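During the no-cost extension, the postdoctoral fellow (Dr. R.K.) reprocessed legacy sequence entries with the updated structure-token encoder. One reprocessed record is reproduced below for audit purposes.
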Amino acid sequence: MIREGIWESSLYFQVSESSPVERVSARLSRSGLWVKSNTFEREFFIGEFRIRETHPNGDILFDFPILKREYGTLPIARCNDSELLNLLNTYGYTRKGDYIDLGFKPAIAIGISIILFIVLFFTLGIDWISLGVAELIPQEAEEALGKAAYEQVSSEFEIDTSFATKTLMSKCEAFVGSLSPDSSRHFKIVIAEKNIKNAFALPGGTIVVYRGILKEMEREPELLGLLAHEAGHIYKKHSLKKVARASLFLILYALIFGDVTGLSAILIQQAGGLLDLSYSRADETEADEFAVTTLKSIGYDISGLATLFKKIKNTENALDWGSFLSTHPSPEARIAYFEKEASLQNVSGKRVLTEEEWQLLVK
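Re-encoded structure tokens follow.
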């Protein structure tokens, strides 16, 4: 039933297409979809649910990407209501894959995005706009970009998939994840079997450490300092900022229009060139400061950052992308900064790996 632009009826909800069907009360308004059953009550806002299929007889199939992380599947809901279908047709949201947004039409969203872009460009500049847009990109889209980039570059190297390494990396992942209050972010750390003195981070939480730089390490604080630095790039969304700058208008339009699927597609198209986008000196300095600040806050030894940078200072095979030395601030200045901060630190003696585990990792 539709009353004052609000539809009220019931949906048939399933966690997956093979799971039991549950009838739930539902209300669709301009702000979103409210759903209530005997076991849960939830409101899905614009961009958190979408139309998967519609049929002339009034059948409508929705899905809920926002719940995929929670359930591990893509929950769906069905209904047969010609009034709802007419309402959706009125607003132009009946194409497969459209996110439901009863408040905007495409032409309006395009106009708003153009006006907003012009205003922001002349008031803040391109770098500030890119940073602001990067902050607005949903984590789901960020993770899709990181996954696409990893799939493209992982064919270039062999990953250490041994049970022992995976177990040790899981400890490091938990440690890196604890460096920020953002508990929703999950890290994946892998060892690439290539003799390169380097490491790099991808949007969403993947960090790749090359065997070449691991061989240079003598102490756990060198590895954890490196991981904290790379995590800084991820938490500060430095790669996303570069991608946002490259496709600024399209991303801004997708954000205004609430098109998370379209946004993910735009970002994934940039995945191939992601690692060619070097960090700025300001980004590197910010990642250094993130590592130092977060490690010091928990009393973890930061001296490993200085000793590791001394070892790779004269490296000749660092990669252009993610390189420590090619576009980064002066190695001497960074080492001096790390040493100064370490001299002021009260170290707690905290470890993530036992000495036996550490030796197993670097053997």
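The CA atoms of residues 142 and 264 lie 8 Å apart. The two ends are 68 Å apart (CA to CA). The remaining legacy entries will be reprocessed before the final report is submitted.
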